[in-house]
Design brief:
With about 150 residues, the chain is α+β, with helices and mostly antiparallel strands. The protein is built from six helices and seven strands. It has a three-stranded mixed beta sheet with strand order 5-6-7. Strand 3 and strand 4 form a beta hairpin.
């Protein structure tokens, strides 16, 4: 049975939280990757950033709906507005990356990985061993594993 360690990409390209949005875009294009883990100075995983995060930074701002009740105006969805404004004005990776990262260990089965990626709509799955980043699995890695090609 194939495991994460058999299909993961081991030479993981990472970025730091203070990496600029422009540097991130250049890294994704240069290395032809769809995203990357965000690590601190000690190499600890602190987030993950994908093409979708970069694209959503440039998406349209959604103005909240206003509810009028008697003579008061009540904005609905203002917390999302605040989040959207922060995202759109972001200058660094720490402002757009996902900080709640789902990870697996190197012994996780291929079937579990496929289920996790499908059910949780995950694009990239960092692989940790004893708390340290040792690899990453994307959809192409899974397909390679299904086809019998391993790293």
């Amino acid at each position: 049975m194939l495991k994460a360690k058999d299909i993961m990409t081991q030479n993981v390209i990472t970025v730091k939280p203070d990496t600029t949005i422009e540097e991130l875009a250049r890294t994704l294009m240069r290395d032809q990757i769809s995203g990357t883990p965000v690590v601190d100075d000690k190499g600890k995983l602190v987030g993950i950033v994908t093409e979708n995060d970069l694209i959503s930074k440039n998406s349209r701002l959604h103005i909240p709906t206003i509810l009028r009740l008697f003579d008061a105006y009540i904005p609905l969805g203002t917390s999302k507005l605040e989040t959207d404004i922060k995202r759109m004005t972001a200058n660094t990776v720490k402002d757009i990356c996902s900080k709640e990262v789902i990870t697996i260990d190197s012994e996780t089965s291929l079937e579990y990985i496929a289920t996790l990626i499908t059910e949780r709509k995950i694009h990239l799955l960092p692989v940790l061993k004893e708390g340290k980043l040792v690899g990453i699995i994307g959809k192409k890695d899974l397909i390679k594993g299904f086809s019998g090609e391993t790293s």
